[in-house]
Amino acid sequence: MLARAEKEGRIEPPRVRTFNCWSLAELLSHEKLEEVSLLKMDCEGSEHEIFEHTTDSDLRRFKRIMMEFHVFHPSHNWGKLVRRLKQNGFTVHVSKPWLRYLFAKTGMLWATRID
After folding, report:
1. Across 84-101, average pLDDT
2. Which residues, in sequence order, are bridge partners of residue 90?
3. Which of 32, 59, 71, 110 is most buried (most C-beta within 10 Å)?
4. Which range, 6-10, 28-32, 75-79, has the best average confidence (pLDDT)?
């Protein structure tokens, strides 16, 4: 049905858009940020790769982190995110309501760094 509607011109084909992406390190450097009071992340599964490529020293620049996490791939491990944050001086609270986690494989994580 969708292909026929597209051929008949009733809907537009999807458009491809390109965006520049910065690592957290590049963003911190570009904006000359020594400390950030809150990092809010909602990046649909990319949080695992972002944290994997963020140094401990850059991670410790954040006072609080609020993020939605996803488990879309076997390499996605929210427990690993929690351990990494705790190793860097954060207290961490995780919420994964069982029904939401069961069907959407997502949850929320709040982390606060204790000085």
Report:
1. 85
2. 113
3. 59
4. 28-32
List Cβ<8 Å contacts ≥24 apart for 28-34: 28/58, 28/61, 33/61, 34/61
As a whole number, mean pLDDT of residues 35-51 equals: 88
The vertex-14 CA angle with 9 and 17, nearest 5°, equals: 145
CB-CB contact of 66 with 40 (8 Å)? yes
Coil, strand or helix: which one is 10? coil
Q: Are 90 and 84 in contact (CB under 8 A)?
A: no
Count of all residues that appear for the chain in the document:
115
User: Whole-angstrom Cα distance, residue 28 to residue 22?
Assistant: 10
DSSP 3-state assignment of 23?
A: coil
Distance (Å, rounded) from C-alpha 31 to C-alpha 61? 13
